[in-house]
């Protein structure tokens, strides 16, 4: 069978977008949108992708940066299938191994936008980063060096500023990225004229993204390749639903990437979209997947079909999350029901382990605000959201180290990888063998993990400890079952 790159060619276009991150999400979301815009909206711009961390570019080079996005799901009651070969990625460059090529992109005349997705942990500031590092460690530090190179090369030309359009799910992602860049500019004593150029020539826009991307369909790749008639090692599977909310209406004329196939909303009220999506959709994921995985399930679709896990999700979403969302109840419930249909998508297997990546920052960003609103409104700990932290701490509890991760073990018999920031995993490992109450208190009291000391919330640490003990005693599934019964 031929490779996709033997059947399709990549048109040459000016590089208009620099993209930090080569992950499955950006490739099935932003790059898919740009590809359509090139075809339908005369966007006329290609993308240069930067690997923000270690990693190899070979798998992209082997395919001339060409790959397929396969959308599968239900739309308007019908089965929807779309295969799009993406030919808009000009180059894939490792910031670490090809630093000079990365910096040379700052001289590209047509460059206008910087897109990123480096996970919720990626927009970070590390004061150990030096200007002389090539490259410095974090994504914002790399971006600062890139912007400085462009500012210097074009001698502060106001026309050569860039628009930063980050897609990480952090609150106010654009403003967060801007504050990190300004911190680096101050740390490195970069000239005031550069900071003035950042303010006048560049823009940092807040955005919110929504599309479930499962990535490479390892389980049924043979059938898909058979259907397509070619091989594709970069194939990326996702749902048809798409929404990119961009918090700057004035960008609509410049960033022309919306179409019937890809929905873009320019607004100056991003918060309403954000709270609903992050609390309900991402909150449902983060509260459900770790316990469901420990109870023996592997995919979101299986959770939806399992009566015990499904009941727990119903009670979590409709009983504890929806009441905290600042929207009329019917609207929030309608959104939650639509999310359920997306979770039930029979064509896309969304792996629980894929969602488990960096769960500590996810729990902090996607559950803790809901948890606190619920405590404030009801005067008691919400049962399921409390349990969700216990499930997280049980899932993470391991003293065994793997390659850049910890290794957990499931009652079902297999081991699994636990991925999070290295310092968080090191702390977990150090404390995992302690008695449950001690382990729980040690982790929950780390304000730098959660933004506050969670043991200061009355009764919370004891309740989490009790959940973990009960899971160990009767099994995770039986514990979810009994919790659901005494609703
Ligand atoms: N997959 C989805 O359904 C989906 C949907 C919406 C949003 N997202 C967002 O996309 C992010 C990435 O998800 P994905 O599915 O593409 O995963 P992925 O593992 O395929 O890609 C992760 C990307 O983030 C980079 N990265 C990870 N940690 C980093 C760090 N500390 N600093 C810099 N770069 C870092 C990796 O190099 C890689 O480019 C998620 O955190 C989420 O915010 C994903
Ligand atoms: O992508 P992550 O790892 O940040 O979070 C996992 C999921 O909750 C997330 O990918 C959702 O599927 C997505 O946010 C839907 O738009």
UniProtKB/TrEMBL annotation:
Q: Which terms are listed as keywords in the entry?
A: NAD, Oxidoreductase
Enzyme class, top EC level, equals: oxidoreductase
Q: Entry's InterPro entries?
A: 6-PGluconate_DH-like_C_sf (IPR008927), 6PGD_dom2 (IPR013328), Mannitol_DH_C (IPR013118), Mannitol_DH_N (IPR013131), NAD(P)-bd_dom_sf (IPR036291)
According to its UniProt record, the EC number is 1.1.1.58
GO cellular component term, pick one: cytosol
Mannitol dehydrogenase C-terminal domain span: 269-471
Is Flavoprotein among the key words of this record? Answer: no
Domain of life of the organism encoding this protein: Bacteria
Molecular function terms in GO for this entry?
mannitol-1-phosphate 5-dehydrogenase activity; tagaturonate reductase activity
Keyword match tRNA-binding: no
Chain ranges of the Mannitol dehydrogenase N-terminal domain: 16-251
Any coiled-coil ranges, and where?
A: none
List the catalytic activities from the record. Answer: D-mannitol 1-phosphate + NAD(+) = beta-D-fructose 6-phosphate + NADH + H(+)
The record's Gene Ontology biological-process terms are: mannitol catabolic process
One Pfam family, please name it. Mannitol_dh_C
NCBIfam families to which the protein is assigned, alphabetical: PRK03643.1
Write down what this protein is called. Answer: Tagaturonate reductase
Query: Which organism is the protein's source?
Result: Megasphaera stantonii
């Amino acid at each position: 069978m031929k490779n996709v790159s033997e059947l399709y060619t990549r048109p040459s276009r000016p590089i208009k977008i620099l993209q930090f991150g080569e992950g499955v999400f950006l490739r099935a979301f932003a790059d898919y949108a740009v590809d359509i815009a090139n075809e339908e909206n005369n966007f006329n711009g290609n993308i240069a992708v930067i690997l923000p961390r270690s990693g190899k570019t070979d798998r992209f080079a082997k395919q001339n940066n060409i790959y397929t996005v396969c959308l599968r799901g239900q739309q308007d009651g019908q089965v929807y299938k779309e295969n799009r070969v993406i030919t808009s990625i000009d180059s894939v460059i490792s910031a670490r191994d090809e630093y000079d090529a990365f910096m040379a992109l700052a001289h590209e005349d047509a460059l206008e936008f910087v897109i990123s997705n480096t996970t919720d942990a990626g927009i970070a500031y590390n004061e150990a980063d030096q200007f002389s590092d090539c490259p410095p460690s974090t994504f914002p530090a790399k971006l600062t060096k890139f912007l400085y190179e462009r500012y210097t090369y074009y001698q502060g030309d106001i026309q050569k500023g860039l628009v930063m359009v980050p897609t990480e799910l952090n609150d106010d992602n654009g403003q967060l990225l801007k504050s990190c860049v300004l911190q680096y500019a101050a740390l490195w004593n970069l000239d005031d004229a550069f900071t003035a150029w950042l303010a006048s020539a560049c823009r940092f826009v807040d955005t919110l993204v929504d599309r479930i991307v499962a990535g490479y369909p390892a389980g049924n790749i043979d059938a898909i390749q058979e259907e397509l008639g070619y091989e594709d090692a970069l194939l990326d599977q996702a749902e048809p639903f798409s929404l990119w909310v961009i918090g700057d209406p004035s960008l609509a004329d410049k960033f022309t990437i919306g179409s019937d196939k890809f929905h873009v909303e320019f607004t100056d009220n991003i918060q309403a979209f954000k709270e609903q999506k992050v609390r309900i959709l991402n909150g449902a994921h983060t509260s459900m997947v770790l316990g469901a995985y420990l109870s023996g399930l592997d995919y979101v679709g299986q959770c939806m079909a399992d009566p015990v896990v499904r009941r727990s999700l119903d009670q979590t979403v409709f009983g504890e999350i929806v009441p905290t969302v600042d929207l009329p109840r019917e609207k929030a419930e309608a959104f939650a029901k639509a999310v359920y249909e997306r979770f039930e998508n029979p064509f896309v297997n969304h792996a629980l382990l894929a969602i488990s990546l960096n769960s500590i920052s996810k729990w902090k960003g996607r559950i803790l605000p809901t948890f606190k609103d619920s405590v404030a409104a009801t005067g008691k700990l919400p049962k399921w959201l409390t349990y969700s932290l216990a499930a997280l701490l049980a899932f993470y509890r391991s003293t065994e180290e793997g390659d850049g991760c910890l290794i957990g073990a499931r009652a079902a018999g297999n081991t699994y990888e636990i991925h999070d920031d290295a310092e968080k995993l090191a702390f977990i490992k150090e404390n995992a063998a302690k008695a449950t109450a001690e382990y729980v208190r040690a982790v929950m009291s780390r304000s730098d993990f959660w933004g506050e000391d969670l043991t200061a919330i009355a009764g919370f640490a004891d309740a989490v400890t009790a959940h973990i003990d009960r899971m160990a005693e009767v099994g995770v599934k039986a514990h979810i079952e009994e919790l659901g019964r005494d609703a």
